[in-house]
Amino acid sequence: MSDCTPPDADSLNAIKALVGDKGWKPAAAAPGYFEDPRGRFAGRGCLVVSPDTTSEVAAIVRICSGARIGIVPISGRTGVVAGQLSIDSDHALVLSLERMNRIRSVSADDSVMVAEAGCILENVHAEAQRHGLQFPLSMASKGSCCIGGNLATNAGGIQVVRHGNARDLCLGIEAVLPNGEILNELSPLRKNNTGYDLRNLLIGCEGTLGIITAATLVLKPIDPETATAYCAIPSPGAALRLFRHLRMELGETLSALELMSGFGLDLVLSHFPALGRPFDGRHDWYLLVEAAGPEGIGARLEDALGNALERDLLANAVLARSEAQRKTLWELRENTPEANRLSGAICSSDTSVPVSRVEEFIHRTVQSVANVHPGLRINSYGHVGDGNIHHNVFPPEGHGKAQFVSNHPGIIEDVRMAINDATHACGGSISAEHGIGRLKVKDLEIYAGKARLDAIRRIKAALDPHNIMNPGALID
Questions:
Q1: Distance CA 439, CA 453 (A)
Q2: How buried is 102 (Cβ within 10 angstroms: 0-12 exposed, 13-18 middle, 19+ buried)?
Q3: How far apart are CA 242 and CA 355, in angstroms?
Q4: Do residues 260 and 336 make contact, with C-beta atoms less than 8 angstroms apart?
Q5: pTM of the model
Q6: Environment class of residue 109 by beta-carbon count within 10 Å: exposed (0-12), middle (13-18) or buried (19+)?
Q7: What is the DSSP letter of 359?
Q8: Each residue of 240-289: pLDDT tens digit?
Q9: Measured between alpha carbons, how far is 467 from 465 in angstroms, rounded to an integer?
Q10: DSSP secondary structure letters along 249-287
């Protein structure tokens, strides 16, 4: 993390007075704000503040700007690349948006909702449904992640193939800039060509250019019918061939395609046996498919899968016949990260490649990781429709995580870089949906082009000349 100025007592006292007794905690009394979800390290800081309004956020930023105090913004605390944690300085102020959790408005005519940054994603879903609409951004952490973090990292999730990333589902932004000014651009405009797109500059910036306090979110009609199927396939390449076939038959109703390996399914069932195996036999690869649209989409998906079976595009398929069955099929996928953790993964990746190169990427990664240590095991899975494949790497069979890592110093970093190199060789990105944070800053310097890095640094210097906005995240 870039060095922050040690905070002076007068500035901290002014911030405490601003937010009141309910709006601040000493860092020592708030350990939950400094925890990494994967338990790898602990964050640090001088004070935790929880403003209640955008004007309070702006006032805090003005104080910090004048005193050169670094600010680390957080919302749901679910980030996995330390974007929300100061890991090497006690001087930063942790600014939590948890109290800014109001739904300000819903407009059915504009098909939008204005939600504050601290709104939990699942609560946004519920409010949209209350109005007969949906907000289609969804992921396994929906019960705890917040809109501010979703936008700060341009989160993806399970429906990118149809609805896009968080950026594609946001029409307007309210944010506090590094000088304490409030950028108020919440108008639900779908056409606005008045210069630089500041909304999309702030989305994905990980809090390094400003603090998002509210957003105008795109709402869509609820599909009358949703159909879900679990397919057995011989290879990742077969998943792409099945994807092309289903896209031709189902068009834009195809909303999710989640690739799972046989090894990955075995891991999930070893920790969640009540879910049960979808098929009698074991297969090397699986594809979870979902389509949503008008009444009859279930029959169309069944016909499309039948045609795929006749063309040898899949080995078997099971179609959910009830909401309970659909939920169980999704739990096989959504419990994968937890199964990886419980099984002792030493490395978890988040990279993306062109969809056409997914199979090559998986093969390259397997070989590259084997070159690091031939006994390592890999669970490859993810959003095959957008090229975002996660690799979780485990010690050899019979070896515990702690002892194996202790016996092989540097192996985690070697594995991580092997995956990055395979990603780069396939024309991919070292961060697909989790961001750069503090853990991938050096990676960005290695794999991003000089022009890109220079532009990022110049934008940062222009908007945040005192480097108070999430210093150490994204770039040094």
A1: 17
A2: middle
A3: 13
A4: yes
A5: 0.91
A6: exposed
A7: H
A8: 999 999 999 999 999 999 999 999 999 999 999 999 999 988 999 999 99
A9: 6
A10: HHGGGEEEEEEEEHHHHHHHHHH-GGG--SSSS--SEEE
pLDDT of residue 3: 57
Which of 288, 295, 284, 287 lies closest to 234, judged by CA? 284
Encode 149-192 in three state secondary structure: HHHHCCCCCCCHHHHCCHHHHEEEEEEECCCCCEEEECCCCCCC
Largest CA distance in the chain: 74
pLDDT of residue 14 exceeding 90, the answer is yes
Confidence of residue 1 (pLDDT cuts 50, 70, 90): very low
Per-residue pLDDT tens over the stretch 433-471: 888 988 899 999 999 999 999 999 999 999 999 999 999
Helix (H, G, I), strand (E, B) or coil at 317: strand
* pLDDT > 70 fraction of the chain, expressed in percent and rounded: 99
Q: Are 391 and 411 in contact (CB under 8 A)?
A: no
Q: Is pLDDT of 115 > 50?
A: yes
User: Which residues, other chains included, contact 351 with Cβ-Cβ below 8 Å and sequence gap of 6+?
Assistant: 388, 389, 391, 419, 420, 423, 428, 429, 430, 431, 432
List strand residue ranges (DSSP E) for 347-434, in order: 347-348, 351-352, 377-383, 388-394
- Dist. CA 167–CA 160, nearest whole Å: 11
Pick from 189, 99, 82: which is nearest to 148 by CA? 99
Tell me which residue has tokens 């704000």. Answer: 33
